[in-house]
Design goal:
globular; about 30% helix; SIR2/SIRT2 'Small Domain'; binds adenosine-5-diphosphoribose; 2 domains; three-stranded antiparallel beta sheet; alpha/beta; 9 helices; six-stranded parallel beta sheet; Rossmann fold
C-alpha cells in the first residue's frame, strides 16, 4: 500500500509563534510599510538601499527564530504520509524543523540572487546584505524573493503536487495573494481539506473544508494525531 499524500499550504501565520511578523494582522508588516516601497521591482529601482534594509531586518529575525510546535507537528506527519509542503513563507523554519519536501512559492530570505544572471543564487550565512555586495559577474545582489508583480516560477510545480493530494491542509494564511491562494482549486474535490487559522478567512467558495480556528501551535498537533491514527498501516 503506497503512502497517501498530504499537501500543506502554509502562510505567515505558521511562523507567527516563532516571533516572525505576519503581513495583514494587527501589527503585521503591511501595517508599518507600504509593500510598493519595499517589495516590488519598482521599489528596488527607486531605492535599493531601503529594500535591502527591509529584508535585512526580516532576515535578522529569521536567524534568531526557532521552529514552533506547528512546524514540528507537520514533520511528525512524515511518519505515515508523503508530506509535500508548499509555503508562501520565505523563512527556513519548515526545513529546520525537519520537513523533507518544501517548495517556496515566494522565494527564500536566506538566499541572494544576481541582478544580471538569475541563475546565480547564493546562500547567506549572515543577516546583512548590503549595497556593493556583488555576484561573481560583478552585479549587485538582490534578495531571492518573489516581489509583487514578479512571476511565481514554482507555481506550476505546486499545481502538479496539489493535483495529487489525498489530503490538503491550509495553515496560517489570509488567502489574499494569488496565485498561491488559488492552489486549493487544483486539489481533488474528494480530498478532505482542513484550514488551521485563529481568524480564518471566509472560504465559502471551497466545499468540504474543515475549519480549525486555532493557532498553528495549538491546532496542528491534534489534527496530526488524528491523521496519524487513521493512516494506512505501513507495508
Ligand atoms: N497560527 C496560525 N495562523 C495565524 C497565527 C498563528 N499563530 N497568527 C496569525 N495567523 C493567521 C492570520 O489569521 C492570517 O489569516 O495567519 C494569516 C496571516 O495572513 P497574512 O499576514 O496575509 O500572511 P500570508 O497569507 O502568508 O500572506 C501571503 O502576502 O505579502 C505577501 O508575499 C507575502 O507570502 C506573503 C503573502
Amino acid at each position: 500500500m503506497s503512502r497517501k499524500t498530504i499537501v500543506v499550504l502554509t502562510g505567515a501565520g505558521i511562523s507567527a509563534e516563532s516571533g516572525i511578523s505576519t503581513f495583514r494582522d494587527n501589527n503585521g508588516l503591511w501595517r508599518n510599510y507600504r509593500f510598493e516601497e519595499v517589495a516590488s521591482p519598482e521599489a528596488w529601482k527607486r531605492d535599493p538601499g531601503l529594500v535591502l534594509e527591509f529584508y535585512n531586518m526580516r532576515r535578522k529575525k529569521v536567524f534568531e527564530a526557532e521552529p514552533n510546535e506547528g512546524h514540528k507537528a507537520l514533520v511528525r506527519l512524515e511518519k505515515a504520509y508523503n508530506v509535500q509542503i508548499i509555503t508562501q513563507n520565505v523563512d527556513d523554519l519548515h526545513e529546520r524543523a525537519g520537513s523533507s519536501h518544501v517548495i517556496h512559492l515566494h522565494g527564500e530570505i536566506k538566499k541572494a540572487r544576481s541582478t544580471v544572471d538569475p541563475s546565480l543564487i547564493y546562500k547567506l550565512n549572515h543577516w546583512e546584505l548590503k549595497l556593493g555586495d556583488k555576484c561573481e559577474k560583478g552585479s549587485q545582489l538582490r534578495p531571492h524573493i518573489v516581489w509583487f508583480g514578479e512571476p511565481v516560477p514554482e507555481f506550476p510545480k505546486a499545481i502538479n503536487i496539489a493535483r495529487k493530494a489525498d489530503i490538503f491542509i491550509i495553515v496560517g494564511t489570509s488567502l489574499n495573494v494569488y496565485p498561491a491562494a488559488g492552489l486549493i482549486h487544483y486539489v481533488p474535490t474528494a480530498a478532505p481539506k482542513y484550514y488551521v487559522d485563529p481568524a480564518p478567512q471566509s472560504t465559502s467558495t471551497v466545499c468540504g473544508l474543515e475549519i480549525i480556528a486555532k493557532t498553528a501551535g495549538r491546532g496542528l498537533p491534534p489534527l496530526v494525531d488524528r491523521l496519524l491514527s487513521v493512516a494506512d498501516p505501513q507495508t
